[in-house]
Write a structure and sequence with these properties.
The protein is built from 13 helices and 15 strands. By secondary structure, it is an alpha/beta fold. The strands form 4 sheets. A 7-stranded mixed sheet has the order 2-10-9-8-5-3-4, with helices on both faces. A 4-stranded antiparallel sheet has the order 11-12-15-14, with helices on one face. Strands 1-13 form a two-stranded parallel ribbon. The structure holds 4'-deoxy-4'-aminopyridoxal-5'-phosphate.
């Protein structure tokens, strides 16, 4: 089956094979070298000099780690969909004082609301979802950063779970304090790890917080990494091998900029196809380079579409939550080729 869902994605055979290596001690020199090599390549992909950590959880674990380890006073969550909402839930479940700014599905974070919220001066941490996978909206981080850079005391946590590895995210230029991503999306690696860049400012902040949890304590994970390039408990070594192999491919074989260009070409092809056959769910100017969300203007029964495509060897992605019948999503991320995408869209046309 070809996975046309926004993660987990299809993974290259070489990357799958990398997971078949013999087990290793999580306290060995070899694992330190492996983790250090992964960090070095992730720094290139995050365009940062900041420390880059691994979390042996999916992206949600790293989101929780960041929010609970950085908020002293109050957080503001800026959400334009289900994954932005997740930060709000994380705050509530952790007893974090939080305000929740919610924008309509299909629309980006509103710059005026964002600026007015920060002007209040009551937040010490904010969350932004770069690429809202549920709606196909990609927020404009550069424009948002022009606003939040005026408030250097505010910690900026950015979820790039479904864009990192496919879209350029310049952590240092954007001054992101914690940038979070998962392995199973645009990176093209199996699920089981999250990655996160951590600024010096964030390091100062987590030292001010008394209760950061245990397993998801950013300070513990950070300090162990800085000391020995190891993880405080037993990490997911199989996926570490896979990530190491894929990062080598991205950085040295495909090339980082080529990878971004390929994602742009896939997105353009998909948008042209949508223009011809349907309509867009996400607002113009904010359409993602890794996933396109489509309005079901033809009124197809999308459960039937899903079944029909399954018989042709594809896993189809309906709209998220309440949009299950009114929208569908076309992911174009990781190592997807233009030919594979074209073949898939042809199958949809033929239904
Ligand atoms: N944020 C976004 C934007 C996502 O797309 C997802 C997963 N679909 C998550 C967070 C949660 O990531 P994970 O499943 O790796 O915990």
């Amino acid at each position: 089956m070809k996975l046309f869902i926004p993660g987990p994605v299809d993974v290259r055979q070489e990357v799958l094979d990398a997971m078949r290596q013999p087990q290793m001690s999580h306290r060995s020199k070899d694992i330190s070298l492996l983790q250090a090599r992964i960090e070095e390549n992730l720094q290139k992909l995050f365009f940062t000099k900041n420390t880059v950590l691994l979390s042996s959880s999916s992206g949600t674990g790293a989101m929780e780690m960041a929010l609970r380890s950085l908020t002293v006073k109050k957080a503001a969550v800026f959400s334009c969909g289900a994954f932005g909402d997740r930060f709000h839930e994380i705050a509530l479940y952790n007893g974090i004082d939080v305000d929740y700014y919610r924008f309509e599905d299909g629309k980006p974070i509103d710059m005026n609301v964002f600026e007015e919220a920060l002007k209040k001066g009551v937040y010490d941490t904010i969350t932004i979802t770069h690429n809202e996978t549920s709606t196909g909206v990609m927020n404009d981080l550069k424009a948002l950063s022009r606003i939040y850079k005026k408030y250097p005391e505010v910690m900026v946590i950015v979820d790039t779970v479904s864009s990192f590895g496919g879209v350029k995210i310049s952590v240092d230029d954007l001054q992101i304090d914690v940038c979070v991503a998962s392995t199973q999306k645009a990176l093209g690696v199996p699920p089981g790890l999250a990655v996160m860049s951590v600024s010096d400012k964030a390091v100062k902040r987590f030292n001010e917080i008394g209760y950061r949890g245990f397993y998801l304590d950013l300070k513990r994970v950070y300090e162990r990494h800085v000391k020995s390039h190891q993880y405080p408990s037993t990490p997911n070594t199989a996926v570490m091998h896979a990530l190491d192999c894929q990062l080598h491919y991205i950085v040295h074989v495909e090339g980082i900029e080529n990878r971004f260009k390929r994602h742009q070409a896939l997105a353009k092809y998909t948008r042209d196809w949508v223009k011809k056959h349907f309509d867009f769910f996400a607002e113009a100017g904010y359409r993602s380079d890794t996933i396109t969300s489509v309005k079901n203007t033809k009124g197809f029964d999308l459960d039937k579409v899903k079944q029909a495509l399954k018989e042709k060897g594809y896993v189809f992605s309906q709209g998220y939550g309440k949009h299950k019948q009114t929208a569908f999503r076309i992911p174009h991320m990781a190592d997807r080729t233009l030919d594979e995408l074209k073949a898939y869209l042809k199958e949809i046309e033929s239904l």
